[in-house]
Design goal:
The complex is a heterodimer of chains A (about 325) and B (about 290). Chain A is mainly alpha-helical and about 325 residues long. Chain A has one domain. In chain A, about 75% of the residues lie in helices and about 0% in strands. Chain A is built from 15 helices and no strands. In chain A, helix 4 packs antiparallel against helix 8, helix 5 packs antiparallel against helix 6 and helix 7 crosses helix 8. By secondary structure, chain B is of the alpha/beta class. Chain B folds into two domains: about 100 residues, no CATH class; about 160 residues, OB fold (Dihydrolipoamide Acetyltransferase, E2P). Chain B is built from seven helices and six strands, in the order H-H-H-H-H-H-E-H-E-E-E-E-E. Chain B has a five-stranded mixed β-barrel with strand order 2-3-4-6-5. The chains are: A mainly alpha (about 325), B alpha/beta (about 290). At the A-B interface, helix 1, helix 2, helix 7, helix 9 and helix 10 of A face helix 1, helix 2, helix 3, helix 4 and helix 5 of B.
Amino acid sequence: MRQLHSYLIDFTSLIAISIVLYFILFSQLAGEKLSFHISDSFLQLNTIFLSILIEAIPFVLIGVLIAGFIQIFVTEDHIRRLIPKNRFLAVVMSCVVGALFPACECGIVPIVRRLVEKGVPLHAGVGFLLTGPLINPIVIFSTYMAFGNDSKMAALRMGVGFAAAIVIALIISFIFKSKQLKHTISDFTSSAPKRTRNESLTVKMEGMLKHSIDEFFDMGKYLIIGAFIAAAVQTYISANSLFVFGDGVVGSSVVMMGLAYILSLCSEADAFIGASFSNLVPSTSILAFLVFGPMIDLKNTIMLLSMFKARFVLILLVLITVIVFISTTLVSIF
Amino acid sequence: MVRTRFQHFFKAILLLAFDLFFIKLHTTGDISKYINPKYENMSFLAIWIFTLLFLIQLFRIWENNRDEHAYCPPGCNHDHGDSASVPRKLVNYSIILFPLVTGFALSPTVLDASIAANKGTVLPQSNSNSYDEDLLEYEFGDEEEIVNDNFLSNQEYDDKMKNLEQTEFIEMKEDIFASYYEFISDTPEKFQGKKIKVQGFVYKEEGMKGNQLVLSRFLITHCIADASIIGLMAEFEQATEYPEDTWLELEGTLDVMNYNGVKIPVIKAVKWTVIEEPASPYIYPVLTKIL
Protein backbone atom coordinates (compact mmCIF):
# COMPACT_ATOMS: atom_id res chain seq x y z
CA MET A 1 0.00 0.00 0.00
CA ARG A 2 2.78 2.38 0.95
CA GLN A 3 4.69 1.47 -2.20
CA LEU A 4 1.63 2.05 -4.31
CA HIS A 5 1.27 5.45 -2.70
CA SER A 6 4.83 6.45 -3.52
CA TYR A 7 4.37 5.30 -7.15
CA LEU A 8 1.26 7.40 -7.27
CA ILE A 9 3.20 10.46 -6.08
CA ASP A 10 5.99 9.84 -8.59
CA PHE A 11 3.47 9.49 -11.35
CA THR A 12 1.58 12.67 -10.48
CA SER A 13 4.76 14.67 -10.15
CA LEU A 14 5.81 13.54 -13.64
CA ILE A 15 2.45 14.57 -15.03
CA ALA A 16 2.60 17.91 -13.21
CA ILE A 17 6.08 18.66 -14.52
CA SER A 18 5.19 17.76 -18.09
CA ILE A 19 2.02 19.87 -17.99
CA VAL A 20 4.00 22.86 -16.75
CA LEU A 21 6.68 22.36 -19.41
CA TYR A 22 4.02 22.14 -22.12
CA PHE A 23 2.42 25.26 -20.73
CA ILE A 24 5.72 27.17 -20.81
CA LEU A 25 6.56 25.99 -24.32
CA PHE A 26 3.11 26.80 -25.59
CA SER A 27 2.96 30.27 -24.09
CA GLN A 28 6.43 31.08 -25.36
CA LEU A 29 5.45 30.01 -28.87
CA ALA A 30 2.22 31.96 -28.63
CA GLY A 31 4.16 34.95 -27.38
CA GLU A 32 6.53 34.85 -30.35
CA LYS A 33 3.65 34.68 -32.79
CA LEU A 34 1.54 37.34 -31.14
CA SER A 35 4.02 39.84 -29.76
CA PHE A 36 3.91 41.85 -32.99
CA HIS A 37 0.23 42.49 -32.46
CA ILE A 38 0.59 43.66 -28.88
CA SER A 39 0.95 47.37 -28.43
CA ASP A 40 4.13 48.81 -27.04
CA SER A 41 2.37 50.38 -24.10
CA PHE A 42 0.89 47.05 -23.04
CA LEU A 43 4.35 45.49 -23.11
CA GLN A 44 5.57 48.26 -20.84
CA LEU A 45 2.57 47.79 -18.58
CA ASN A 46 3.25 44.08 -18.43
CA THR A 47 6.90 44.63 -17.54
CA ILE A 48 5.99 46.98 -14.69
CA PHE A 49 3.22 44.62 -13.54
CA LEU A 50 5.55 41.62 -13.43
CA SER A 51 8.29 43.58 -11.73
CA ILE A 52 5.94 44.54 -8.89
CA LEU A 53 4.98 40.87 -8.54
CA ILE A 54 8.56 39.62 -8.67
CA GLU A 55 9.49 42.13 -6.03
CA ALA A 56 6.50 41.37 -3.80
CA ILE A 57 6.18 37.58 -4.07
CA PRO A 58 9.19 36.70 -1.88
CA PHE A 59 7.81 38.96 0.85
CA VAL A 60 4.32 37.51 0.48
CA LEU A 61 5.76 34.00 0.75
CA ILE A 62 7.51 34.90 3.99
CA GLY A 63 4.28 36.53 5.16
CA VAL A 64 2.16 33.44 4.50
CA LEU A 65 4.75 31.21 6.18
CA ILE A 66 4.57 33.36 9.30
CA ALA A 67 0.77 33.35 9.07
CA GLY A 68 0.84 29.56 8.83
CA PHE A 69 3.13 29.42 11.82
CA ILE A 70 0.75 31.58 13.87
CA GLN A 71 -2.19 29.43 12.82
CA ILE A 72 -0.61 26.20 13.99
CA PHE A 73 1.69 27.11 16.85
CA VAL A 74 0.17 30.15 18.54
CA THR A 75 -2.88 29.48 20.65
CA GLU A 76 -5.50 31.90 21.82
CA ASP A 77 -4.28 31.40 25.38
CA HIS A 78 -0.83 32.73 24.45
CA ILE A 79 -2.38 35.84 23.03
CA ARG A 80 -4.73 36.38 25.93
CA ARG A 81 -1.78 36.27 28.28
CA LEU A 82 0.49 38.52 26.22
CA ILE A 83 -1.75 41.36 25.07
CA PRO A 84 -2.57 43.91 27.78
CA LYS A 85 -6.24 44.35 28.63
CA ASN A 86 -5.85 48.11 28.70
CA ARG A 87 -6.76 49.64 25.36
CA PHE A 88 -4.00 52.21 25.32
CA LEU A 89 -1.29 49.79 26.46
CA ALA A 90 -2.38 47.26 23.85
CA VAL A 91 -2.15 49.86 21.09
CA VAL A 92 1.28 51.10 22.17
CA MET A 93 2.56 47.57 22.50
CA SER A 94 1.32 46.55 19.05
CA CYS A 95 2.88 49.65 17.48
CA VAL A 96 6.23 48.91 19.13
CA VAL A 97 6.10 45.27 18.05
CA GLY A 98 5.26 46.45 14.51
CA ALA A 99 8.19 48.85 14.57
CA LEU A 100 10.57 46.07 15.54
CA PHE A 101 9.14 43.68 12.97
CA PRO A 102 10.67 44.13 9.51
CA ALA A 103 7.73 43.54 7.20
CA CYS A 104 6.54 44.65 3.82
CA GLU A 105 3.02 45.99 3.45
CA CYS A 106 1.86 43.07 1.35
CA GLY A 107 3.44 40.45 3.59
CA ILE A 108 1.90 41.83 6.74
CA VAL A 109 -1.77 41.55 5.70
CA PRO A 110 -2.07 37.75 6.07
CA ILE A 111 -0.22 37.95 9.39
CA VAL A 112 -2.65 40.52 10.77
CA ARG A 113 -5.63 38.48 9.69
CA ARG A 114 -4.32 35.41 11.54
CA LEU A 115 -3.55 37.46 14.63
CA VAL A 116 -7.01 39.02 14.75
CA GLU A 117 -8.58 35.64 14.18
CA LYS A 118 -6.59 34.24 17.08
CA GLY A 119 -8.05 36.84 19.42
CA VAL A 120 -5.72 39.80 19.15
CA PRO A 121 -7.95 42.87 19.63
CA LEU A 122 -8.66 44.67 16.36
CA HIS A 123 -7.02 47.93 17.46
CA ALA A 124 -3.80 46.11 18.33
CA GLY A 125 -3.92 44.40 14.94
CA VAL A 126 -4.30 47.78 13.24
CA GLY A 127 -1.37 49.25 15.18
CA PHE A 128 0.79 46.36 14.02
CA LEU A 129 -0.47 46.70 10.43
CA LEU A 130 0.43 50.39 10.32
CA THR A 131 3.87 50.43 11.91
CA GLY A 132 5.13 47.09 10.56
CA PRO A 133 5.98 48.28 7.05
CA LEU A 134 6.57 51.92 8.00
CA ILE A 135 9.14 51.67 10.75
CA ASN A 136 11.97 49.23 10.36
CA PRO A 137 15.74 49.45 9.92
CA ILE A 138 15.69 49.00 6.13
CA VAL A 139 13.15 51.77 5.63
CA ILE A 140 14.97 54.15 7.97
CA PHE A 141 18.22 53.55 6.17
CA SER A 142 16.84 53.93 2.65
CA THR A 143 15.04 57.15 3.63
CA TYR A 144 18.28 58.48 5.07
CA MET A 145 20.11 57.65 1.84
CA ALA A 146 17.42 58.99 -0.46
CA PHE A 147 17.48 62.45 1.05
CA GLY A 148 21.18 62.97 0.58
CA ASN A 149 22.20 61.60 3.96
CA ASP A 150 19.92 63.98 5.80
CA SER A 151 18.56 62.31 8.89
CA LYS A 152 15.82 64.93 9.36
CA MET A 153 13.39 63.39 6.89
CA ALA A 154 14.02 59.85 8.17
CA ALA A 155 13.47 60.97 11.77
CA LEU A 156 10.28 62.87 10.89
CA ARG A 157 8.96 59.90 8.94
CA MET A 158 9.43 57.57 11.88
CA GLY A 159 8.20 60.00 14.54
CA VAL A 160 5.14 61.28 12.74
CA GLY A 161 4.31 57.79 11.47
CA PHE A 162 4.48 56.26 14.94
CA ALA A 163 2.33 58.97 16.51
CA ALA A 164 -0.22 58.79 13.69
CA ALA A 165 -0.41 54.99 13.98
CA ILE A 166 -1.16 55.18 17.71
CA VAL A 167 -3.90 57.77 17.17
CA ILE A 168 -5.49 55.78 14.33
CA ALA A 169 -5.43 52.51 16.28
CA LEU A 170 -6.95 54.21 19.34
CA ILE A 171 -9.81 55.70 17.31
CA ILE A 172 -10.40 52.28 15.74
CA SER A 173 -10.66 50.80 19.24
CA PHE A 174 -13.53 53.18 20.04
CA ILE A 175 -15.41 52.64 16.78
CA PHE A 176 -15.19 48.86 16.44
CA LYS A 177 -15.73 46.28 19.14
CA SER A 178 -15.82 43.12 17.08
CA LYS A 179 -13.20 41.48 14.88
CA GLN A 180 -14.63 42.82 11.60
CA LEU A 181 -13.51 39.71 9.76
CA LYS A 182 -15.66 38.52 6.89
CA HIS A 183 -16.12 35.06 8.38
CA THR A 184 -16.11 35.13 12.12
CA ILE A 185 -14.43 32.52 14.18
CA SER A 186 -17.45 32.02 16.43
CA ASP A 187 -19.35 30.40 13.56
CA PHE A 188 -16.94 27.55 13.87
CA THR A 189 -15.98 27.36 17.51
CA SER A 190 -19.52 26.75 18.64
CA SER A 191 -19.86 23.65 16.49
CA ALA A 192 -16.35 22.26 16.59
CA PRO A 193 -15.29 20.74 19.87
CA LYS A 194 -11.95 21.91 21.13
CA ARG A 195 -9.29 19.38 20.35
CA THR A 196 -6.16 19.42 22.39
CA ARG A 197 -4.23 16.68 20.74
CA ASN A 198 -0.51 16.66 21.15
CA GLU A 199 0.61 16.20 17.60
CA SER A 200 4.20 15.60 16.67
CA LEU A 201 6.27 18.50 15.39
CA THR A 202 6.46 17.12 11.83
CA VAL A 203 2.69 16.88 11.62
CA LYS A 204 2.44 20.46 12.85
CA MET A 205 5.06 21.66 10.40
CA GLU A 206 3.20 19.96 7.57
CA GLY A 207 0.00 21.63 8.70
CA MET A 208 1.72 24.98 8.79
CA LEU A 209 3.00 24.60 5.22
CA LYS A 210 -0.42 23.48 3.95
CA HIS A 211 -1.96 26.53 5.53
CA SER A 212 0.68 28.68 3.91
CA ILE A 213 -0.14 27.26 0.47
CA ASP A 214 -3.85 27.99 0.83
CA GLU A 215 -3.07 31.43 2.17
CA PHE A 216 -0.78 32.11 -0.79
CA PHE A 217 -3.57 31.34 -3.24
CA ASP A 218 -6.04 33.35 -1.16
CA MET A 219 -3.77 36.39 -1.13
CA GLY A 220 -2.13 35.89 -4.50
CA LYS A 221 -5.12 36.87 -6.60
CA TYR A 222 -5.60 40.16 -4.75
CA LEU A 223 -1.92 40.96 -4.99
CA ILE A 224 -2.07 40.31 -8.74
CA ILE A 225 -5.13 42.54 -9.25
CA GLY A 226 -3.54 45.33 -7.20
CA ALA A 227 -0.21 45.10 -9.01
CA PHE A 228 -1.96 45.21 -12.38
CA ILE A 229 -3.94 48.36 -11.56
CA ALA A 230 -0.86 50.08 -10.14
CA ALA A 231 1.09 49.22 -13.30
CA ALA A 232 -1.73 50.48 -15.54
CA VAL A 233 -1.85 53.79 -13.70
CA GLN A 234 1.90 54.23 -14.08
CA THR A 235 1.76 53.47 -17.79
CA TYR A 236 -1.20 55.59 -18.78
CA ILE A 237 -1.49 58.46 -16.30
CA SER A 238 1.04 61.22 -16.01
CA ALA A 239 2.10 62.26 -12.53
CA ASN A 240 1.95 65.89 -13.56
CA SER A 241 -1.71 65.63 -14.53
CA LEU A 242 -2.44 64.92 -10.87
CA PHE A 243 -1.37 68.39 -9.84
CA VAL A 244 -4.78 69.83 -10.65
CA PHE A 245 -5.10 71.35 -7.20
CA GLY A 246 -2.36 73.82 -7.90
CA ASP A 247 0.89 73.97 -6.02
CA GLY A 248 -0.23 75.02 -2.55
CA VAL A 249 0.91 72.92 0.39
CA VAL A 250 -2.56 71.48 0.99
CA GLY A 251 -3.14 70.65 -2.66
CA SER A 252 0.23 69.06 -3.18
CA SER A 253 -0.04 67.02 0.03
CA VAL A 254 -3.34 65.61 -1.19
CA VAL A 255 -1.78 64.82 -4.56
CA MET A 256 1.30 63.19 -3.05
CA MET A 257 -0.85 61.02 -0.81
CA GLY A 258 -2.97 60.04 -3.79
CA LEU A 259 0.18 59.18 -5.66
CA ALA A 260 1.49 57.07 -2.76
CA TYR A 261 -1.85 55.24 -2.76
CA ILE A 262 -2.04 54.33 -6.43
CA LEU A 263 1.64 53.66 -7.03
CA SER A 264 1.62 50.99 -4.27
CA LEU A 265 5.38 51.08 -3.86
CA CYS A 266 7.29 48.96 -1.41
CA SER A 267 8.17 50.98 1.67
CA GLU A 268 11.84 50.17 1.15
CA ALA A 269 11.94 51.92 -2.20
CA ASP A 270 9.43 54.75 -1.94
CA ALA A 271 11.85 57.18 -0.29
CA PHE A 272 13.75 57.52 -3.54
CA ILE A 273 10.57 58.27 -5.45
CA GLY A 274 9.54 60.77 -2.79
CA ALA A 275 12.94 62.43 -2.99
CA SER A 276 12.64 62.77 -6.76
CA PHE A 277 9.65 65.06 -6.19
CA SER A 278 11.58 67.43 -3.98
CA ASN A 279 11.86 70.06 -6.72
CA LEU A 280 8.13 69.90 -7.42
CA VAL A 281 6.46 69.95 -4.02
CA PRO A 282 7.27 71.22 -0.50
CA SER A 283 8.85 68.85 1.99
CA THR A 284 5.62 68.61 4.02
CA SER A 285 3.92 66.92 1.09
CA ILE A 286 6.83 64.53 0.67
CA LEU A 287 6.54 63.62 4.33
CA ALA A 288 2.82 62.93 3.81
CA PHE A 289 3.77 60.70 0.85
CA LEU A 290 6.32 58.79 2.92
CA VAL A 291 4.05 58.24 5.93
CA PHE A 292 0.87 57.44 4.02
CA GLY A 293 2.25 54.99 1.42
CA PRO A 294 3.42 52.24 3.76
CA MET A 295 0.28 52.47 5.91
CA ILE A 296 -2.18 51.89 3.12
CA ASP A 297 -2.13 51.66 -0.65
CA LEU A 298 -4.17 50.28 -3.50
CA LYS A 299 -2.73 46.77 -3.53
CA ASN A 300 -3.01 46.63 0.24
CA THR A 301 -6.64 47.82 0.29
CA ILE A 302 -7.70 45.11 -2.13
CA MET A 303 -5.99 42.50 0.03
CA LEU A 304 -7.66 43.89 3.17
CA LEU A 305 -11.07 43.95 1.49
CA SER A 306 -10.74 40.24 0.80
CA MET A 307 -10.90 39.40 4.48
CA PHE A 308 -12.18 42.33 6.49
CA LYS A 309 -15.64 43.85 6.22
CA ALA A 310 -15.84 46.56 3.59
CA ARG A 311 -17.15 49.13 6.07
CA PHE A 312 -14.16 48.62 8.36
CA VAL A 313 -11.64 48.90 5.50
CA LEU A 314 -13.32 52.07 4.27
CA ILE A 315 -13.33 53.72 7.70
CA LEU A 316 -9.71 52.70 8.24
CA LEU A 317 -8.77 54.22 4.88
CA VAL A 318 -10.51 57.50 5.67
CA LEU A 319 -9.00 57.62 9.17
CA ILE A 320 -5.46 57.03 7.93
CA THR A 321 -5.90 59.72 5.26
CA VAL A 322 -7.23 62.33 7.67
CA ILE A 323 -4.79 61.63 10.52
CA VAL A 324 -1.72 61.50 8.29
CA PHE A 325 -2.76 64.71 6.58
CA ILE A 326 -3.36 66.54 9.86
CA SER A 327 -0.21 65.29 11.57
CA THR A 328 2.12 66.12 8.67
CA THR A 329 0.57 69.57 8.33
CA LEU A 330 0.98 70.18 12.07
CA VAL A 331 4.65 69.24 11.89
CA SER A 332 5.26 71.76 9.12
CA ILE A 333 3.73 74.56 11.19
CA PHE A 334 5.97 73.95 14.20
CA MET B 1 -13.69 14.11 -3.74
CA VAL B 2 -12.33 13.88 -7.26
CA ARG B 3 -12.90 17.57 -7.64
CA THR B 4 -10.85 18.38 -4.52
CA ARG B 5 -8.05 16.16 -5.79
CA PHE B 6 -8.09 17.89 -9.12
CA GLN B 7 -7.96 21.26 -7.42
CA HIS B 8 -4.99 20.25 -5.31
CA PHE B 9 -3.34 19.01 -8.47
CA PHE B 10 -3.98 22.33 -10.18
CA LYS B 11 -2.52 24.26 -7.25
CA ALA B 12 0.57 22.04 -7.41
CA ILE B 13 0.94 22.89 -11.09
CA LEU B 14 0.65 26.61 -10.40
CA LEU B 15 3.27 26.45 -7.64
CA LEU B 16 5.64 24.62 -9.96
CA ALA B 17 5.00 27.15 -12.72
CA PHE B 18 5.82 30.04 -10.37
CA ASP B 19 8.93 28.16 -9.30
CA LEU B 20 10.08 27.67 -12.90
CA PHE B 21 9.27 31.28 -13.71
CA PHE B 22 11.67 32.50 -11.02
CA ILE B 23 14.28 29.93 -12.08
CA LYS B 24 13.93 31.10 -15.69
CA LEU B 25 14.43 34.73 -14.66
CA HIS B 26 17.67 33.83 -12.94
CA THR B 27 19.06 31.55 -15.63
CA THR B 28 18.32 33.94 -18.48
CA GLY B 29 19.39 37.01 -16.50
CA ASP B 30 16.06 38.67 -17.32
CA ILE B 31 15.66 39.37 -13.63
CA SER B 32 17.79 42.50 -13.98
CA LYS B 33 15.17 43.89 -16.36
CA TYR B 34 12.56 43.62 -13.59
CA ILE B 35 14.32 44.28 -10.30
CA ASN B 36 17.56 45.69 -8.97
CA PRO B 37 20.01 42.74 -8.99
CA LYS B 38 20.89 43.59 -5.40
CA TYR B 39 17.60 42.04 -4.34
CA GLU B 40 18.26 38.80 -6.23
CA ASN B 41 18.76 36.92 -2.99
CA MET B 42 15.14 37.49 -2.08
CA SER B 43 13.93 35.87 -5.27
CA PHE B 44 16.38 33.00 -4.75
CA LEU B 45 14.62 32.47 -1.46
CA ALA B 46 11.32 32.44 -3.34
CA ILE B 47 12.62 29.59 -5.55
CA TRP B 48 13.36 27.46 -2.47
CA ILE B 49 10.03 28.23 -0.82
CA PHE B 50 8.09 27.45 -4.01
CA THR B 51 9.95 24.15 -4.40
CA LEU B 52 9.11 23.19 -0.83
CA LEU B 53 5.46 24.19 -1.19
CA PHE B 54 5.18 22.29 -4.49
CA LEU B 55 6.43 19.09 -2.84
CA ILE B 56 4.02 19.48 0.08
CA GLN B 57 1.17 20.16 -2.31
CA LEU B 58 2.07 17.07 -4.35
CA PHE B 59 1.52 14.82 -1.36
CA ARG B 60 -1.77 16.52 -0.67
CA ILE B 61 -3.31 15.39 -3.95
CA TRP B 62 -3.69 11.79 -2.83
CA GLU B 63 -4.45 12.48 0.78
CA ASN B 64 -7.85 11.40 1.97
CA ASN B 65 -10.29 14.20 2.22
CA ARG B 66 -11.29 13.63 5.81
CA ASP B 67 -7.74 14.41 6.91
CA GLU B 68 -8.09 17.90 5.53
CA HIS B 69 -9.04 19.58 8.75
CA ALA B 70 -7.07 17.25 10.98
CA TYR B 71 -4.23 19.68 11.40
CA CYS B 72 -6.51 22.65 11.91
CA PRO B 73 -7.17 23.94 15.35
CA PRO B 74 -10.81 24.75 16.01
CA GLY B 75 -12.08 27.80 14.23
CA CYS B 76 -10.17 27.15 11.07
CA ASN B 77 -11.80 28.98 8.22
CA HIS B 78 -9.25 29.11 5.49
CA ASP B 79 -10.32 28.26 2.02
CA HIS B 80 -9.90 24.60 1.30
CA GLY B 81 -11.36 25.30 -2.08
CA ASP B 82 -14.54 23.37 -1.54
CA SER B 83 -16.73 26.32 -0.75
CA ALA B 84 -16.63 28.53 -3.83
CA SER B 85 -18.76 27.87 -6.87
CA VAL B 86 -17.21 26.56 -10.07
CA PRO B 87 -17.34 29.78 -12.17
CA ARG B 88 -15.92 31.75 -9.26
CA LYS B 89 -13.08 29.28 -8.91
CA LEU B 90 -12.40 29.58 -12.61
CA VAL B 91 -12.06 33.34 -12.28
CA ASN B 92 -9.79 32.98 -9.24
CA TYR B 93 -7.44 30.60 -10.95
CA SER B 94 -7.38 32.57 -14.19
CA ILE B 95 -6.23 35.62 -12.24
CA ILE B 96 -3.36 33.64 -10.79
CA LEU B 97 -2.58 32.11 -14.17
CA PHE B 98 -2.50 35.49 -15.92
CA PRO B 99 0.96 36.74 -14.81
CA LEU B 100 2.41 33.30 -15.57
CA VAL B 101 1.10 33.43 -19.13
CA THR B 102 2.32 36.95 -19.82
CA GLY B 103 5.54 36.24 -17.93
CA PHE B 104 6.47 33.27 -20.06
CA ALA B 105 5.03 34.59 -23.32
CA LEU B 106 6.26 38.17 -23.41
CA SER B 107 9.84 39.14 -22.85
CA PRO B 108 10.49 42.20 -20.70
CA THR B 109 10.77 45.52 -22.50
CA VAL B 110 12.97 48.40 -21.51
CA LEU B 111 11.14 51.47 -20.25
CA ASP B 112 11.05 54.33 -22.76
CA ALA B 113 10.48 58.05 -22.88
CA SER B 114 6.68 57.72 -22.70
CA ILE B 115 7.02 56.31 -19.18
CA ALA B 116 9.60 58.96 -18.39
CA ALA B 117 7.09 61.66 -19.28
CA ASN B 118 4.61 60.15 -16.81
CA LYS B 119 7.18 60.12 -14.04
CA GLY B 120 7.32 63.85 -13.60
CA THR B 121 10.15 66.00 -14.80
CA VAL B 122 13.90 65.78 -14.86
CA LEU B 123 14.47 69.49 -15.18
CA PRO B 124 13.36 72.04 -12.63
CA GLN B 125 10.00 73.61 -13.49
CA SER B 126 9.15 77.27 -13.30
CA ASN B 127 6.66 76.76 -10.46
CA SER B 128 9.37 75.27 -8.27
CA ASN B 129 10.91 78.66 -7.55
CA SER B 130 9.07 79.01 -4.30
CA TYR B 131 10.54 75.77 -3.02
CA ASP B 132 14.15 76.54 -3.62
CA GLU B 133 14.75 76.51 0.08
CA ASP B 134 13.38 73.02 0.38
CA LEU B 135 15.67 72.00 -2.37
CA LEU B 136 18.68 73.32 -0.54
CA GLU B 137 17.80 71.25 2.50
CA TYR B 138 18.56 68.09 0.61
CA GLU B 139 21.79 69.29 -0.82
CA PHE B 140 24.46 66.68 -1.05
CA GLY B 141 26.33 67.11 2.21
CA ASP B 142 30.07 67.19 2.71
CA GLU B 143 29.89 64.30 5.12
CA GLU B 144 31.17 60.93 4.04
CA GLU B 145 28.58 58.75 2.38
CA ILE B 146 28.17 55.34 3.95
CA VAL B 147 28.43 52.94 1.11
CA ASN B 148 28.95 49.23 1.03
CA ASP B 149 27.71 48.15 -2.32
CA ASN B 150 27.93 44.64 -3.69
CA PHE B 151 29.65 46.01 -6.76
CA LEU B 152 31.81 48.61 -5.08
CA SER B 153 33.71 48.36 -1.86
CA ASN B 154 33.97 51.38 0.40
CA GLN B 155 37.51 51.97 -0.78
CA GLU B 156 36.61 51.81 -4.46
CA TYR B 157 33.74 54.18 -3.95
CA ASP B 158 35.85 56.73 -2.09
CA ASP B 159 38.50 56.53 -4.81
CA LYS B 160 35.91 57.10 -7.51
CA MET B 161 34.35 60.05 -5.75
CA LYS B 162 37.75 61.62 -5.12
CA ASN B 163 38.63 61.00 -8.71
CA LEU B 164 35.51 62.88 -9.80
CA GLU B 165 36.64 66.04 -8.06
CA GLN B 166 40.17 65.93 -9.40
CA THR B 167 39.86 64.53 -12.89
CA GLU B 168 39.49 66.70 -15.98
CA PHE B 169 37.72 63.94 -17.89
CA ILE B 170 34.61 62.45 -16.28
CA GLU B 171 33.39 59.14 -17.62
CA MET B 172 29.87 58.31 -16.47
CA LYS B 173 30.26 54.54 -15.95
CA GLU B 174 27.14 52.61 -15.01
CA ASP B 175 28.30 51.51 -11.56
CA ILE B 176 28.86 55.05 -10.33
CA PHE B 177 26.44 56.96 -12.60
CA ALA B 178 23.90 57.76 -9.88
CA SER B 179 26.42 59.17 -7.40
CA TYR B 180 28.28 61.19 -10.05
CA TYR B 181 24.99 62.51 -11.40
CA GLU B 182 23.85 63.59 -7.96
CA PHE B 183 27.13 65.32 -7.21
CA ILE B 184 27.33 67.12 -10.56
CA SER B 185 23.74 68.36 -10.51
CA ASP B 186 24.01 69.57 -6.93
CA THR B 187 27.20 71.54 -7.45
CA PRO B 188 27.46 72.25 -11.18
CA GLU B 189 29.88 75.15 -10.67
CA LYS B 190 32.59 72.78 -9.40
CA PHE B 191 32.57 70.95 -12.69
CA GLN B 192 32.43 73.85 -15.10
CA GLY B 193 34.88 73.39 -17.97
CA LYS B 194 35.49 69.69 -17.32
CA LYS B 195 35.16 67.16 -20.10
CA ILE B 196 32.51 64.47 -19.80
CA LYS B 197 31.50 61.31 -21.64
CA VAL B 198 28.04 59.85 -21.09
CA GLN B 199 25.61 57.34 -22.61
CA GLY B 200 21.86 57.63 -22.40
CA PHE B 201 18.62 57.89 -24.29
CA VAL B 202 17.18 61.09 -25.68
CA TYR B 203 14.36 62.60 -23.66
CA LYS B 204 12.67 65.91 -24.37
CA GLU B 205 10.45 68.02 -22.20
CA GLU B 206 8.14 70.89 -22.84
CA GLY B 207 9.88 74.24 -22.65
CA MET B 208 13.16 73.01 -24.07
CA LYS B 209 14.80 74.68 -27.03
CA GLY B 210 15.43 72.94 -30.32
CA ASN B 211 19.13 72.54 -29.72
CA GLN B 212 18.57 70.94 -26.33
CA LEU B 213 17.90 67.40 -25.22
CA VAL B 214 18.22 65.46 -21.97
CA LEU B 215 20.47 62.42 -22.11
CA SER B 216 18.76 60.24 -19.54
CA ARG B 217 18.77 56.91 -17.79
CA PHE B 218 16.26 55.18 -15.55
CA LEU B 219 17.33 54.76 -11.94
CA ILE B 220 15.94 51.55 -10.44
CA THR B 221 15.93 51.37 -6.66
CA HIS B 222 14.04 48.17 -6.09
CA CYS B 223 11.89 47.23 -9.06
CA ILE B 224 10.92 48.77 -12.39
CA ALA B 225 7.79 50.23 -10.82
CA ASP B 226 9.88 52.63 -8.76
CA ALA B 227 12.02 53.75 -11.69
CA SER B 228 12.82 57.41 -11.67
CA ILE B 229 14.46 59.27 -14.50
CA ILE B 230 17.77 61.06 -14.19
CA GLY B 231 19.60 62.88 -16.95
CA LEU B 232 21.91 65.65 -18.00
CA MET B 233 20.96 68.46 -20.32
CA ALA B 234 22.99 68.57 -23.54
CA GLU B 235 23.19 71.36 -26.11
CA PHE B 236 24.23 71.08 -29.74
CA GLU B 237 22.81 72.34 -33.02
CA GLN B 238 21.81 68.92 -34.37
CA ALA B 239 19.82 67.96 -31.26
CA THR B 240 16.55 68.30 -33.20
CA GLU B 241 17.59 65.47 -35.50
CA TYR B 242 17.46 62.90 -32.74
CA PRO B 243 13.98 61.76 -31.72
CA GLU B 244 13.17 60.56 -28.22
CA ASP B 245 14.42 57.09 -27.20
CA THR B 246 17.48 57.29 -29.47
CA TRP B 247 20.52 56.03 -27.58
CA LEU B 248 23.53 58.34 -27.87
CA GLU B 249 27.08 58.38 -26.64
CA LEU B 250 28.05 61.97 -26.16
CA GLU B 251 31.25 63.84 -25.31
CA GLY B 252 31.51 67.47 -24.42
CA THR B 253 32.36 70.11 -21.90
CA LEU B 254 30.33 70.79 -18.77
CA ASP B 255 28.90 74.23 -18.24
CA VAL B 256 26.30 75.81 -15.98
CA MET B 257 23.04 77.24 -17.23
CA ASN B 258 20.00 78.81 -15.72
CA TYR B 259 16.83 76.80 -16.32
CA ASN B 260 13.60 78.21 -14.89
CA GLY B 261 15.62 80.04 -12.29
CA VAL B 262 17.61 77.02 -11.13
CA LYS B 263 21.27 76.42 -11.92
CA ILE B 264 21.75 73.14 -13.70
CA PRO B 265 24.71 71.50 -15.43
CA VAL B 266 24.69 71.38 -19.22
CA ILE B 267 26.94 69.52 -21.64
CA LYS B 268 28.17 71.53 -24.63
CA ALA B 269 28.49 68.55 -26.93
CA VAL B 270 31.36 68.27 -29.38
CA LYS B 271 31.14 64.64 -30.40
CA TRP B 272 28.21 62.23 -30.45
CA THR B 273 27.33 58.87 -31.97
CA VAL B 274 24.13 56.87 -32.13
CA ILE B 275 24.62 53.61 -30.24
CA GLU B 276 22.71 50.39 -29.65
CA GLU B 277 20.71 50.16 -26.44
CA PRO B 278 23.23 48.86 -23.88
CA ALA B 279 22.88 45.39 -22.41
CA SER B 280 22.22 46.92 -19.00
CA PRO B 281 20.08 49.97 -19.76
CA TYR B 282 19.20 50.73 -16.14
CA ILE B 283 21.20 52.43 -13.44
CA TYR B 284 21.11 51.10 -9.90
CA PRO B 285 21.93 53.42 -7.01
CA VAL B 286 25.03 52.78 -4.98
CA LEU B 287 23.60 51.50 -1.74
CA THR B 288 24.43 49.19 1.08
CA LYS B 289 23.70 45.59 0.33
CA ILE B 290 20.65 44.90 2.42
CA LEU B 291 19.95 41.21 2.13
